[in-house]
Structure formats: C-alpha cells, structure tokens
Write a structure and sequence with these properties.
The complex is a heterodimer. By secondary structure, chain A is an alpha/beta fold. Chain A has 2 domains: about 130 residues, 3-Layer(aba) Sandwich (D-Maltodextrin-Binding Protein, domain 2), CATH 3.40.190; about 90 residues, Periplasmic binding protein-like II (D-Maltodextrin-Binding Protein, domain 2), CATH 3.40.190.10. In chain A, the strands form 3 sheets. Chain A has a 5-stranded mixed beta sheet, sandwiched between helices. In chain A, strands 5-1-6 form a 3-stranded parallel beta sheet. Chain A is globular, with a radius of gyration of 21 Å. Chain A starts with a helix and ends in a 20-residue tail after the last helix. By secondary structure, chain B is mainly α. Chain B has a single domain, classed as MetI-like fold, CATH 1.10.3720. Classes of the chains: A alpha/beta, B mainly alpha. Chains A and B meet through α1, β2, α7 and α8 of A and α1, α4 and α7 of B.
Amino acid sequence: MSKLLRRSVLTLALLGLGVAAASAQTVDEIKKRGVVRIGVLSELPPWGFLDASGNLAGYDVDVGKLIAEKLGVKPEFVGMTVAARIAQVMTGKVDMLLATMGMYPDRAKVVQFTEPYAGLKIIMLAKKSQKIEKLEDAANLRIGVTRGSAQDTAITAGLPKTADIRRFDDDSAAIQGLITGQVDAIGANTTYMININKVMPNNDFEPKLTFNEQWMGVATKPGQKQLNEWLNGFIDEIKANGQLEAISQKWIGQPLPQFPASVPGVPYTVQ
Amino acid sequence: MITTLGPAQFLLLAQGLAWTLALSAIGFALGGLGGLVIALARSSGLKWLEGLAAFFIEVFRGTPLLLQLFIVYYGVGLLDLSVSPWMAVSIALMLHASAFLGEIWRGSIEAIPAGQTEAALALGIHYATRMRYIILPQALKISVPATIGFLVQLVKGTSLAAIIGFTELSRTGTLLSNITYRPLLIFGIVGLAYFAVCWPLSRLGRAMERRLTPAART
C-alpha cells in the first residue's frame, strides 16, 4: 500500500513540475520567440476583464495588442489577480504587466515601471443627498473600501481611528455594499462610476472627494534596460499619434489626462 | 464590463466546476489511500504506531485546511523548494482527507466485534488476509454514511484552493461577480452548482448503505 502511495505521490510530483517559462530579458529575445507574454487583470472592467465572449479585453489589453503589433509578434495575454501580479512578472511567467498597476514608491522598489500610459483618480462615492465636502464630513459614516487599495490607504490615513471603515475583499463587494446600503460611502476610483452606470443606469451616486491621482505604468522585472527603453519609446509614440487617446475614449469615455513628467519615488527608467 | 450572462460565462462556470470536481477527486483518492494507512496504523495494536497515527490525526484535524494549503504552498516555497500549485493542493488535500478518513475508518474497524479477530487468529488466518476478507468488508458498510458526509465536506472545502491560485467554482463566481457587479445572481448559480454535486453524493451514500446492508433494512 505504501508503495502505491509513494508511486502516486511521485506521479503527481512529475505532473506538477511544469517547466517554468524563462522570461525574455531583451526585446530581441521576445522578437525571436515570436510571442510577447503580457499579464493583465481578468476582473477589473474597463481595464482588464473577460468580456461577454470570455476573452480578455479592456484598456490594458488594447495597449498590449499595440505593443505586440509594434514588436511584430503575437500577444499572449495572461489573466491574473491583483494579489498575484507582482509574483507573476518576478518569476518570469510573463514578460511585462499591464495590470492597472498604480505607480507607487513601495512597488517601484520591487518592479521597474515605465512612464505612465493611463491614469485615474482615487475618489469617494456616495449618494447625491449625502453631504460630504471634506473628508471630516465622513467621519461618522459607514465607509466601505477594498482592502489594501489606494483608497483604503487614503481614507484610513485621513480619518480618526474611531471611524467606521469596512474593508471588503474586492471592488464589486464594496460597490455592492454601497448599492445595498450597508455602507454610506465608498472609497473608489473614477472608473467605478462607468461600471455602476452600466449596471444601474438610474442610480443617484456621485463622486464626492478626490484623494489623489494614480498613474499606471508598464511593469517589468528590474534591470531590463533595453525592454524598459523600448516600452518608454513605444508609449511616447502612441501618446503622440493618437492611438492611446482612441483607447482612452473607447474604454473610459474621456480624453487622456495630462501625464506628469515624473512620479515621486517612481523612476521611469532603469537606474 | 458585461451586464448579462451568456454562454461564455456559463462555460467559465463549467470550467470552474470541472476544477472543483478534479480537486475533490484528487483529495478523495489520495486521502482514501492515506486514510486506509492511518486507519490500519491506528488499529494495529502496536503502541508506538497507534500513537504516531493519533498524533497525525490530531494535527491535521485540529488545524484549518486553509492553513495547511498555505503552509504547503508558500511555506515550503520559503525553503527554496519549488512546489507547483497542483503538487501543493494534492499534498494538502491528501493530508487533510487522510486524517479525517483515517479516524472515520478506525472507528469502523474497531466497531467489528473483537471475537471475529480472535476467531481468525485461532484459525491461523494472518493479518493481511484477516483485514482484507473479514474486517474491512464489514467496516466498509459501517463507514459509508460518515465517509460520504466527509466527501460532501471535501467538495465544498476545495474552494479554499483558490488561495493558491486555482480558479475553481467559488473563485470563478468571485471573478464573474467582479465583472458583472451581480454577486447575488452569480453566487446563487454557484450555490446551485455545489448543491447539484453534493446532493447526488448524499443519495449515492444512502443507496450504497441500503445495498451493503440489506438484512438490516427489512
């Protein structure tokens, strides 16, 4: 019996030892391989999500398609969660992330960002009748946030410890909390409204406060100088020729924001 | 953003269900083997072996499956050993199921009157034959309800494999609810899918019980 057991464990071990794909270090290696592997989120509309036909789509995916086109290779999109994305690029499962990843200094210590290709605002959403003009007005309200998100950080830092901040596991749970009235306001980003308007066309929610602007860049493993330079050149190009503007209009319904020349603590190039 | 569920979404749910079934099957198959070893060790009559098996049962029955999955996947990874998610989930589900099934089956083995073992010994029938032909077939009958009960629990417990990256049924539900913003509808469907798997299992258990013990049912 124990022999059989050992054999089945061994068989499973062999099955499990999937060969980890080595990530390309350079643009040439990606071109030679003929495929660029791009990590995108699979559940964050309108950035990266599985569309009605079950394919990955969104702002990030469209930018990824342009990258592949420009490189002259086929794109291979890998859908992932927010929690797994950094591990996926660091272990070389994908060449780069276009995963709606906000450019923050703590992340820049781990991955290499390019210049931003997208932006959004971190805001607070509530019913129109709810009076919130400054953050202190919300001190006695029940506030929902997505655990660990940028809005969680901003709201937690701005309110006293006694505030009733309820942390949800994901965006849809926080939004559901707002819709069903379990919370009075939620920390959100500008794209929540696009989604809520689609699901509930006659809702009476509106943006109340703006905490900060968040910039999103392409993330690669640190030290990949050639790839980083190529990507920065590519982003400059699609900003200049209107392709990025078209993507922004298509998914966000807004013109591109004025991108900053630098983000504090987040270098755009390999140092 | 999508607002309606179409064939593609149901296909995703079906794929999630397939993962859930695969994980359950692995857990039950490996746990069944491990559980048999544990049950035999636990009723072997050898003090040290019984103690060892009892310790194993207490550890893996007394800690959450979530924690076991986490330790096997991330903890072993820290020791510089690469564990694939499949490997990790197989090991964790095996340990978990072995402990529960081992204890269920130990009870069933010990429920067989000692007189049968004594009679077998008197006839010179040794251990392997005694277990295979006398004790285990009878113990099997006794263990069916509890085993099926555990299997139903295991099916639902596989949802925890989502923390190491398996997109099984529950995780698919979360994903679709994030895309559609319709959690009640999605999780309603997910709940029905679990029920559709677990209910026939319970029925099967009842049918097996009836078939294995015809005399007791008349």
